Amino acid sequence: xxxxxxxxxxxxxPPQRTLMGPGPSEIHPRVFSAMGRPTIGYLDPVxxxxxxxxxxxxxxAFQTRNSLTFPVSGPGSVGMEMCFVxxxxxxxxxxxxxxxxxxxxxxxxxxxxxxxxxxxxxxMGAPIDPDKVEEAFRNNPDAKILAFVHAETSTGxxxxxxTLAGIARKHGAYTIVDAVTSLAGIPVLVDExxxxxxxxxxxxxxxxxxxxxxxxxxxxxxxxxxxxxTRVQSWFMDINLLLGYxxxxxxxxxxxxxxxxxxxxxxxxxxxxxxxxxxxxARHERNHKALRAGLETLGLKFxxxxxxxxxxxxxxYVMPGVDEKxxxxxxxxxxxxxxxxxxxxxxxxxxxxxxxxxxxxxENVMLCLCALExxxxxxxxxxxIGAAEAAAYHAYAAHPSRAKGVRAVA
Length: 410
Ligand SMILES: *Cc1c(COP(=O)(O)O)cnc(C)c1O
Fold this sequence. Notes:
Layout: E1 18-20, H1 29-35, H2 45-62, E2 68-72, H3 76-87, E3 93-98, H4 101-112, E4 116-121, H5 130-139, E5 145-149, E6 151-152, E7 157-158, H6 161-170, E8 174-178, H7 190-193, E9 197-199, E10 213-217, H8 219-226, H9 239-246, H10 259-275, H11 277-297, E11 313-317, H12 324-335, E12 337-341, E13 350-354, H13 362-378, H14 387-398, H15 406-409
Parallel strand pairs: 1-12, 3-4, 3-5, 5-8, 8-9
Antiparallel strand pairs: 2-10, 6-7, 9-10, 11-13, 12-13
Helix pairs in contact: 1-10, 2-10, 5-6, 11-13, 11-14, 12-13, 13-14
Bound molecules: pyridoxal-5'-phosphate.
């Protein structure tokens, strides 16, 4: 006789939230409905055709012709790990840039693969300093790979991927680039910048359901992995084996593809194609300017200096005199809004406002500013009710896209 644990548990209905944290972002109804379509076999010719379309759509998103471009069955962290386990052989030197939490995870990956991490440090909130990377290569001419995070979600800073990749190429090194938060929010030009291995996540600016990691590898990487003297330590992530399923010519069983999640990614990418990459970047910029105007009107100061700010991830110092956690708790409980907290050394010191993908819209910006005002006022901070929304409104109205109508395009 089994125990009766679980008795009385019914269906789970999550609340409808406004998601303005570090991801997941909100999901368009078209993407949800794609997920509910019939599950078919992963070798069904109809499914295989959808896979080819997915690869083509991802090449558009990454701006690449790389044939090995596909979604990894796993979250962004698996995409990260896939790059390292395939490209790092025991003893390899890897220059890793750390200016936030995710750069730290890259170091961990290098070490677990038996590689030697040469760490280039920059402060939390600062971009990666190309001069330090250049110096690291001068001191380590045998370094094989440069690994860095393009958009550090933990601080909201963008680094100059094009310049960093140029330095790596000059020194004959490969690049591993984390584009989890940057893809579809700011330009990620894989071929133009000469990036080798780039991974992203489905749940940030692509606004798809979480759990998939779009990835692209240059032909150089495929050659490197084929020429390895030691086996890739992970069976699941070995691209030599995955090529049999996601490659150009064969389609043989490797693992059961997460079919319905792939439908939703396909739909999210079709929507990105319809909007156009440039338009998506411009939308993030426009909403960022309005959110920034509102946050600054409230007296909040940005962690990152202006030229390096990510439009999709806005980190500001906590308002003096208010309880950091209580603000987040009440935003969720009273306004259904999720925002992000600080990580690591920034815990308790900053809030992170994400406007990624489908979350990047005027109604979210306005609602969030309104909620902050009423809460700050209630908590005794000296602010002027209505001023932040007015500032945001004027930022929208001043934008060149005003001609098309503020609401329709924001
Ligand atoms: C979110 C994120 C990841 C990890 O992605 P998961 O899908 O949570 O595994 C990696 N890098 C960056 C920069 C991220 O923002």
